[in-house]
Known about the structure:
Blueprint: E1 4-9, H1 14-28, E2 34-38, H2 48-58, E3 64-68, H3 75-85, E4 90-94, E5 98-100, E6 102-103, E7 106-107, H4 108-116, E8 123-125, E9 128-135, H5 136-142, H6 155-167, E10 173-174, E11 179-181, H7 200-210, E12 211-213, E13 227-229, H8 240-246
Amino acid sequence: xxxxIVITTFDKRFESDLIPLVNSIKALRPKIEVILMVNGPGxxxxxxxxxxxLLSFLxxxxxxxxxxxxxxxxxxxxxxxxILTSSNERVLILNDDLKIHLEDGKSFFDEFELAFMSxxxxxxxxxxxxxxxxxxxxxxxxxxxxxxxxxxxxxDGDFFWRYHEKFNREIPNLEIGLIDNxxxxxxxxxxxxxxxxxxxxxxxxxxxxKYKDILFGGYKGMFDKRVKKMLPDxxxxxYEKFYLExxxxx
Length: 250
């Protein structure tokens, strides 16, 4: 059973969230590949003390591979780059504000891997994109997460909508226990907020440019109302399919 884990994070959640999450993962699955996507600040210099502490911490764990962005990047880009970096076809993407539990000798990973054996290629966990599985094959068919969403928010709803458009079905959801979504409100202060931690820019791009509310037809998905897509999607990472098909010929 092969899958990689991608975690997105940033400096303000290092001590409180990232350290316990990585420690939990590596205690339970020491050989799992973890791709860590480290975001930079929106309107400040990257904290060099944080960089040093982060790299020192990660050096104590095997098979954790960080990508550090000096300046703020979109969540869509972090997810895309994490998927592209991972060695395996299927990827478990996690927010950093998750807590993994162990009860009666069993953990989230025991339940997850049992479900994973017969699960669809792409699925959400417990109704949330705070933890979901995606396959490289399907993300290339649907199109990668839209990096025109320059901040945080709406990238999941947009992908959910396009997934339905491509396959005429919704992304399945599996209920899996022993993992808690903390919903941290700790964010970078360098971008303008809309709803909670989501960026105002992303909301306006989705509502005013990419989609249009309609009364009849269309599809609602995760959005507030039924919508029609008005702005076409550009092809992102067009050569990834060629790479995957030809990498064994090197």
